[in-house]
Amino acid sequence: MSEKVPGFLGWMQTPAGRVPRISTELGFSDHLGAWKARWGIGRMAYMVPPGLYALGNPAASDPVVVTANYKMSYDIVRRTLAGRNVWLLVLETYGINVWCAAGKGTFGTGEVVRRVSSSRLAQVVSHRRLLLPILGAPGVSAHEVARRSGFSVSYATIRAADLPEYLDNGMVSAPAMRELTFTFYERLVLIPVEVVLALKSVAVIGGVALLLVAALGDLAAGLSAFCAYLGAVLAGIVLGPLLLPWLPGRSFALKGAAAGLLWSSVFYLLAGTTWNIWVTAAIFLALPAVSAFYTLNFTGCSPFTSRSGVKKEMAIALPAMGGALLMGVALLLAGRFL
After folding, report:
1. Are 125 and 209 in a shared domain?
2. Is the same domain home to 246 and 320?
3. How many angstroms separate the CA atoms of 289 and 147, rounded?
4. What range defines the domain where residue 217 resides?
């Protein structure tokens, strides 16, 4: 196991057996791995073994912090707790971060209870308190954990960066520690993996659009259609999330459509005004629909959406997007043959 544990320093003997001691310093490979995960490279295998770890030289009375086995979460927590003596209980979330794993159920009541039992935590610590991230709360029933394991659950902070202050404050959360943010930078760092995930569909759909339009007109028209589609995708993936607070409406699909309209206007100006009314109408219908789809997909990254809200929005937005795309294609064909 030691060879698979990032930051492994050695073993610590406890009444429940050996526990890996881990470093709070991140090396080049840790930073490189995080960069690769941000770009979707090896993302689904970016995890650490679940179990109990020791930061510093914790005693039986020291706190137990719970996190996911997504390595980026693990790294952020251990780096944040530098210079402290803490037990780190890592749950098996299959390489998914805390918030997403809570929604999927892997960062959940059953896994907390199983990990407390398998690590023999009751023999390691003298207290009966687990410190969980607030974003893990949707997946964990605190009273069930207490009933089944004997450990109480305290929801500490939203951000790992606030853990030192939380611990110094007698394990009491200040209001700012419970305030959810989704800043420009927090949105920006999520975009690279969204771009990478979209590459395959962009290549297939964009290539088909290029060939179809080229067959109906000429190669230049096909290339223009591909550029239009690519711009709409990027508007939905990049522009929509970055301008999220300033785009109109509460719906992600509506915000994406607004970003798509902006791109459609730019593309229209760049391409010139020689299009007939059919082609112009097709562009202003189809491109915003494409952008809306990709911005709607960003709801999976946002901490502001709920599962029921997303389902409701999808039920309305997806048929509207499909209708706009079909109408756009119909208008494009009308402009070609009429």
Report:
1. no
2. yes
3. 50
4. 185-337
Strand order in the sheet with 152-155: 8-14, 17-22, 51-55, 86-91, 64-68, 129-132, 152-155
Written as six digits, the tokens of 164 are 């030192």
Q: Is the pTM of this model over 0.90?
A: no
Same domain, 223 and 133: no
How far CA 118 is from CA of 22, 112, 121, 145, 313, in Å, comes to: 19, 10, 8, 14, 41
The verdict on 41 and 151 lying in the same domain is yes
Q: What residue type is assigned to position 261 of the chain?
A: L
3-state secondary structure 131-181: EECHHHHHHCCHHHHHHHHCCEEEECCCCHHHHHHHHHCCCCCCHHHHCCC
Domain-terminating residue out of 164, 180, 196: 180
122 and 224 both lie in a single domain: no
Question: In this structure, what are the phi and psi dihedrals at residue 92, rounded to the nearest 5 degrees?
Answer: -80, 100
Same domain, 323 and 214: yes
- Greatest Cα pair distance, the chain, in angstroms, is 83
Each residue's pLDDT expressed in tens, for the chain with a length of 338 residues:
555 789 999 999 999 999 999 999 999 999 999 999 989 888 889 999 999 999 999 999 999 999 999 999 999 999 999 999 999 999 999 999 998 888 888 999 999 999 999 999 999 999 999 999 999 998 999 999 999 999 999 999 999 999 999 999 999 999 999 988 889 998 999 899 889 988 888 888 888 777 777 676 677 777 888 888 999 999 999 999 999 999 998 899 999 999 999 999 999 888 766 677 888 888 899 999 999 999 998 887 777 677 677 788 889 989 999 999 899 888 877 766 66
From 160, 180, 200, the end of a domain falls on 180
Helix (H, G, I), strand (E, B) or coil at 74: helix
Count of structural domains, the chain: 2
